[in-house]
Amino acid sequence: MRSLVATCLLAILVVGFPIPRAAQAATGDPARGEDIYHRCLACHALNHNSVGPRHCGLFGRQAGTLKGYSYSTAMKKYGVTWNEETLDHFLENPLKAVPGTKMGYAGVKDAQERADLIAYLKQATSDPKICN
Amino acid sequence: MTIARLSPTPDGEIRRSFLTGFGKFTLSATAIALLAGNERLALIGSASAQTANNDVAILNSALGAEQQAIAAYQLGAESGLLQKPVLALAVQFQGHHKQHADALAKAVQKLGGKPVAPLKDYAFPKDKLKKEADVLSFAASLEKGAVSAYLGAVPILTDRELAKAAASILGDEAMHWAVLRQALGQPPVPDAFMS
Question: At B18, which helix (H) or strand (E)?
């Protein structure tokens, strides 16, 4: 009996929990995402343009359309509206998603890290204490 | 020539950058030698016009980050908030960023691109910089961001010598970050890996 329990435990350990893990990848943790956002700070700020455009108001904005920032032609023509899905695709590999973009950055390859980052961006870019 | 004009979207422009591509590659070997401080001219194999354009975009965004760092240290040095040993560090670090910016701008030019110009106004959060620690934290956040930016550049630079040069700058900026953290009383090297 004990060995049966052990075998079951072992099986669970080896096989893992595919369903909860997949669900977890879809929901991001904004606290971890804030940490990941530090990678963007050489080029971006939430509330002002720097090397890259400001991120405040990102969700629902069409790519390459913020007034006062000089985008590449490629980004101006990209055409997507920023949301969880479009950001996930772009941030995985910016230069592949938008060939000719001037965001010269490899991207965030880990799906969970992207989910965390996007969860943070969603909160922070619409936070009236940060964005004015 | 702007990066936008090198962009592959409009059909005519793909052709143009393709046709002018070979000249750029010949020059790029010199750029590599320049940036890496190396007399040997590396051979570039099967790089396409698009990947050379990507290298320009990557180097130019790194250049933009360097220009921002130069401006941030200028602000810090002029703020009157930095005391002596730290002030000397800030000036020295700014000098490194100037050298990085020069090297990057030269490499962009040699690749046939146009180096980005520094912004007129960086809109730094001046109202939040009230004491020495604020300035140091701000500088540390830019240095950490720069390390991440180079980490995001190294794997996608087509040219291995340019990637090496970017990694060499990365190392320098990681040292800045550690020293700033030390000055802030934080563990200077918090992790085994950078991200």
Answer: helix B11-36
Task: Identify whether A15 is part of a domain.
Answer: no
Model confidence pLDDT, tens digit, residues B87-132: 999 999 999 999 999 999 999 999 999 999 999 999 898 999 999 9
Residue A75: domain span: 24-124
Q: Which residues of B touch A33 (CB under 8 A)?
A: none
Q: Per the structure, how many domains does chain A have?
A: 1
pLDDT digits 0-9 by tens, B142-179: 999 999 999 999 999 999 999 999 999 999 999 999 99
Q: Is A96 on the interface with B (CB under 8 A)?
A: no
Closest CA to B116 of B172, B57, B44: B57
pTM of the model: 0.80
Say if A41 is an interface residue toward chain B (CB within 8 Å): yes
Query: Which of B6-15, B75-84, B184-193 is predicted with the least confidence, judged by mean pLDDT?
Result: B6-15
Task: Show me where the domains of chain B are located.
Answer: 10-183
Cβ distance A38 to B148 less than 8 Å, yes or no, reads: yes
Contact B112, B23 (CB under 8 A): yes
User: CATH homologous superfamily of domain B10-183?
Assistant: Ferritin, core subunit, four-helix bundle (1.20.1260.10)
A to B CB pairs, distance under 8 Å: 108
Residue B26 in contact with residue B20, Cβ under 8 Å? no
Cα gap A1→B39, rounded to integer Å: 73
The domain that holds A48 is classified in CATH as 1.10.760.10
8 Å CB contact of A103 and B61: yes
User: What is the average pLDDT score of chain B?
Assistant: 82
